[in-house]
Structures are given as structure tokens and as C-alpha cells.
Amino acid sequence: MAAFFVLDDDLSTHTGLEARIAEQIIPGLADLGFELVRISVLGRETPTVQVMADRLDGSLITVEDCERISYAVGAILDVNDPIPGNWTLEVSSAGIDRPLTRPKDWDRFSGHLAKAEILVPINGRRRFSGVVLGSDEVGGRLRLDDGSEVVLPFRELRKARLILTDALIEATRQMMPPPKSPPEGGCPDVVEASGAGEK
Predict the structure, then answer these.
(1) CB 3.0–4.6 Å: which of 96, 131, 163, 173 could bond 143 by disulfide?
(2) How many angstroms separate the Cα of 89 from the Cα of each of 43, 59, 84?
(3) How far apart are CA 40 and CA 187, in angstroms?
(4) What is the pLDDT of residues 19-60, one digit of tens each?
(5) Nearest residue to 99 via CA among 2, 5, 193
(6) CA 33 to each of CA 42, 82, 162: distance values in angstroms, whole numbers, following the listed order
(7) Contacts of 121 (CB under 8 A, 6+ apart)
């Protein structure tokens, strides 16, 4: 079973293995110029730790960046040993149609289309799609197709993701580094590593 966590600067509201791992890796990521977007731990026998990261400066990350992140996070997990036994690490960029996991994601991608699902229905609905209007202290804001606006409480968000559009592709293209990087940017494939904690 997968766990999905919205991560922000205050991890005190999060519990469990994902929160412990996040607390351990966030400083190391920041030292390298990256930030954690999302973390999930999947599986039981040989868990897979999925780390999704962004650059602190907002530009797209490269495959080489994912390799650096994988090496650093793998070393931190090996030393701190939060997972008993063997585990696998997957590192990826947030991608173009990225998840919206933090208030700043909602603010950064204001004006773009997104879809979201919440745990507790609002007016009988759990699923929403519309134009991102940013965030407030309660949650992410969407303008729905009928013109109405809804605030989706961060604590109730099950998942939220940008919808791939030409406008989003163009906005992402403008964030790309100069041509020395591959034109498609980002991490098209997941970078994997394995580790083993002490039993």
C-alpha cells in the first residue's frame, strides 16, 4: 500500500516512516540545491522508497541531478537505517504534469489546469478539476468549469496533479536550462539504488 504525504516546512504534523525519512533527507537535499516534493514507501518485504525532488531555484532537474540525489539519499538511509532489511530507492523529478503537494506548488502553477481528489467530500464531490488559483492558509484553490471556486483543504487532499496542456509545456520549456542539457529536461526514467539496513 502506498502512502502519500504533503510535505512542507513543518513536518511536525506528519507521522510514520515517510515523515522520519523526510526529516533525515531534507537537509542533505537542500545542501545540494534540491528540495523534497513527495516521498512514498511502497511494499513490505523489500520496500521501495520513492523520492520526488525539485531544484530550489525552480529550474528542471536532469538525469545527472537525479543520480546525485540518489547517491546522497542512499548514503543517508544507509547511515540512519530507518528501514530494517533490504530496500530499493527510486528518485525522480516532479515532471511536467507534476503533483501539487505543497502550498507553493499551488501558487507557482496558478493559471494552469489541475485535477484533485480529496478524502472528505465537498458538496458530495471528492474529485475536482479546474484552473489553479493558488493557495490560502487552508488549502489549494481551483476555479471549476462552471465558474465557481473551491478550496481543497491540504489536510484532506488525497492527490492533486497538473493536467498536461500546451500552455504548461511552454511554461516548463521556459524553465529549462540553456541548451547544454537534453532538450526534454527532467528525469524521464527513474534512477534506482538499493540498500540494506542492519537486521
Answers:
(1) 131
(2) 12, 23, 14
(3) 18
(4) 999 999 999 999 999 999 999 999 988 999 999 999 998 888
(5) 5
(6) 26, 24, 24
(7) none
Instruction: Please check whether residue 34 is in contact with residue 55, taking contact to mean a CB–CB distance below 8 angstroms.
Output: yes
Q: Fill in the DSSP letter of residue 177.
A: P
Residue 14 in grid coordinates: 506528519
Cα first-last separation, the chain: 22
- Tell me the C-alpha distance between 116 and 126, whole Å: 8
Looking at this protein, which amino acid is placed at residue 136? D
Domains located in the chain, CATH noted: 11-96+180-196 (3.30.300.70), 103-163 (2.30.30.100)
User: How far lies 25's CA from each of 39, 45, 70, 180, in Å?
Assistant: 10, 22, 11, 29
Kindly report the backbone phi and psi dihedral angles of residue 20, in degrees, each rounded to the nearest multiple of 5, phi listed first. -65, -45
Rounded Cα–Cα distance for residues 150 and 169 (Å): 25
User: CA-to-CA distance for 104 and 106, rounded, in angstroms?
Assistant: 5
pLDDT one-digit tens code per residue, 161-176: 999 999 999 988 887 6
| Cα–Cα dist 6/194, whole Å | 25
